[in-house]
Design goal:
It contains 13 helices and 17 strands. It has 380 residues and is α/β, with parallel strands linked by helices. The protein has two domains: 249 residues, 3-Layer(aba) Sandwich (Aspartate Aminotransferase, domain 2); 127 residues, Aspartate Aminotransferase, domain 1 (Alpha-Beta Complex), CATH 3.90.1150.10. The radius of gyration is 21 Å and the shape is globular.
């Protein structure tokens, strides 16, 4: 089976992990800080805080933003459910606004959802293509909201000459095996704000700090620490961090290969514009990380998506669908969200199929994917 996404691991990565396994520090050692430094420097951010996975990183970012029970935050439905779930963890209400032609949050639709309860905007870079980051930053400033960017698809992407990770108040990355780089599981939050940085560090470590004490007495020694918030054990291990640091050395090459694959799909499928919509390519201002390559079946063909999907799977191609709009999930229905909330997102979903794109995808395998897909399209 040709998967839609897959990690790329070589001897350097394995050697980096083995070195940690032979060391004294499997966790809470120097490798995590090293990985954070590499990540922050690459993205042009002042601070990076690593987490055990991307969902934990989202939870940490929302906590640092001050999100709490009774608050609302605006986000898009075309995402993995962790983007909105992380707000539910804190008792806040996700408010879904519709998407634009790229599957990203529509800024005009988002603005209409702002009210006195709104605390934060969480914008997703769907498929690795940056959203209107300048526009959302201005909107957040105008309304005194925290601007969080779910960049879990977008490590390595650029917006107006700046790397994703340096623009929003906080940017969240995921290092799941299908992402731009992997740490097995893992995530991080990048920020230029020291206050957010300090809150993130405390949150991932049970809410515990060994500085800026509130109740320390003169008789307390070096053992002393304080739990100042309700935190969690969301720490990344040194094993994960060593793998991540090794992977970061190859990130630009990985992105270059992903772009090449996307360009090959576009060239091969552009003549099928009456049957499918293709994702928009890179521009002078926006460079995608191409985490996903999502085609959208049009018209009557969209009604046959299940049949087409199954034919591709039967041919050994591990296509996928990204995503079922979050509010259509049973749990969200139980919270009162209803079908029809975001019509463009629902229409986007109805025709979407994600084709394979990952650094180790062989040209012959991509050509096979293209041939099988076009055969299906040609035969209706």
């Amino acid at each position: 089976m040709i998967p839609y996404g897959h990690q790329s691991i070589d001897k350097d990565d394995i050697d980096a992990v083995v070195k940690v396994l032979k060391s004294d520090w499997l966790t809470q050692g120097p490798n995590v800080g090293g990985f954070e430094s590499v990540l922050a420097q690459y993205c042009g951010a002042k601070y990076a805080v690593a987490f055990c996975n991307g969902t934990a990183a989202l939870h940490g970012a929302y906590f640092a933003a001050g999100l709490k029970k009774g608050d609302e935050f605006i986000t898009a439905p075309m995402t993995f459910m962790a983007t909105s779930n992380a707000g539910l963890y804190l008792g806040a209400k996700p408010v879904f606004a519709d998407v634009d032609e790229n599957g990203n949050l529509d800024i005009e639709k988002a603005e209409k959802k702002i009210n006195r309860k709104t605390k934060m905007i969480s914008v997703i870079d769907y498929t690795g293509r940056p959203a209107d980051l300048d526009g959302f930053r201005k909107l957040a400033r105008k309304n005194k909201l925290v601007f969080v960017e779910d960049g879990c698809h977008a490590l390595g992407a650029s917006y107006k000459g700046k790397k994703v990770g340096s623009i929003a108040d906080m940017t969240v990355f995921s290092f799941h095996p299908v992402k731009a780089i992997t740490t097995g599981e893992g995530g991080a939050v990048l920020t230029n704000d020291k206050k957010y940085y300090e809150r993130l560090k405390i949150f991932r470590n049970h809410g515990i700090t060994k500085e800026n004490f509130k109740f320390k007495k003169e008789t307390d020694g070096d053992w002393y620490h304080e739990m100042q918030h309700q935190g969690y054990n969301y720490r990344m291990t040194d094993i994960q961090a060593a793998l991540g640091t090794s992977q970061m050395k190859k990130l630009d090459r990985f992105i270059k290969v992903r772009k090449k694959i996307a360009n090959a799909y576009e060239k091969a499928l552009k003549d099928y514009a009456d049957l499918i919509d293709l994702p928009k390519g890179d521009t002078k201002q926006i460079s995608s990380a191409w985490h996903l390559y999502v085609i959208r079946l049009k018209g009557l063909l969209a009604k046959k998506r299940g049949e087409i999907f199954n034919k591709l799977r039967k041919a050994g191609i591990g296509v996928q669908v990204h995503y079922i709009p979050v509010y259509l999930q049973p749990h969200y229905r139980s919270l009162g969200y209803k079908k029809g909330l975001c019509p463009k997102a629902e229409k986007f979903y109805e025709g979407a199929i994600s084709l394979p794109v990952y650094p180790d995808l062989k040209p012959k395998d991509q050509n096979y994917v293209i041939k099988k897909l076009t055969d299906i399209l040609n035969n209706g």
